[in-house]
Each structure stands twice: as C-alpha cells, then as structure tokens.
Amino acid sequence: MDPFDDISEFEKTMKKMLENFFGKGSIEVFGPTQRRQRNKTPGVREPITEINETKDEVIVTIEIPGATKEDISLDVSSNGIEISAKTQRLTDSGEVSGTSSTEFKKFMSLPTDVDPDSVNASYKNGILEIKLKKLKQTKSKKVTIK
Fold first, then answer.
1. Engineering a disulfide at 67: which of 29, 71, 92, 135 sits with its beta carbon 3.0 to 4.6 angstroms away?
2. Secondary structure (3-state) at 100
C-alpha cells in the first residue's frame, strides 16, 4: 500500500470535518497533491520544495520520500532546476503482493542566476539538498551614444 494513500484519506477526512464546521471552501491540508495539478500529468506528484539564498549561494531543499539517489534525475541550468524521480516498492499485504510506484516531477525557476557547473547535491532520508553558487552580478555601465 502506498503511504500517500493514507495521507490522501486523512486529508479527505479533515477537509470534510472542516467544511462541516466552517462551510464549503478551498481547504488544502498538505503540500501539492494531484488534484491541484490540473494541467500536469495525472499520477505525478509535485515534491514539496524550499528555496533559500545566502550571500554566495542558492540552496534548494526537495522532499522525495521513498526514493534512492539512483531514482532521481536532476537537470540544472543557470536560472532553473528540473527534478524527476520514480520510486518502485514491492508490496506484500498477506494475500496480495505486487509493486507500487510513485512519480515526482517539478521544474522551478531560481531567484537569481547560478553557475550550473557548481552544483553540489546530496540525498539523505528522503531529502534532496542542492547547493548552487550564484553568478557574480556585473554592474551596469552608462554608455554614451555617439
């Protein structure tokens, strides 16, 4: 059984309880899920991400539970990151056994230009951390037109 099925069921229950209390509305309990990705590929989850900046680098943290580093594909350009991962697990619940898979995909623009050759990525306990050095910003120069 996919652990995200439990989360989805919990989310539905919480949404129903909150709607009964507050009335109908748009209540989103957890990070991005399939129903909020109307224009995206069905069955693909968008991982929860966080982007932070220091003076010299951009740090991107992405949650990809259940993946191994071999499952993850990362493409970096000077102004964006594309991440994809597909996890497969063997399931055995007594009488039924098989495999379940989860696919993650996301493209994000970065807040500033970075050096794609400076990427340092590490993956541990479901968290992918990507560190990128910022490109030096050149100052503008006033030009006299002749």
1. 71
2. strand
Residue 126 has pLDDT above 70, yes or no: yes
What does the block give as tokens for 6? 């439990």
d(CA 48, CA 34): 13
Q: Are 116 and 78 in contact (CB under 8 A)?
A: yes
Beta bridge partners, 120, equal 131
Is residue 104 included in any domain, yes or no? yes
Residue 132 near residue 118, CB atoms below 8 Å: yes
- Summarize the confidence of residues 85-103 as an average pLDDT: 73
pTM here is: 0.62
Domain count, the chain: 1
Q: Residues 15, 11, 81, 140: is their CA dihedral positive or negative?
A: positive
Residue 6 lies in a domain: no
On whether residue 17 sits in a domain, the answer given is: no
- The CATH number linked to 48 is 2.60.40.790
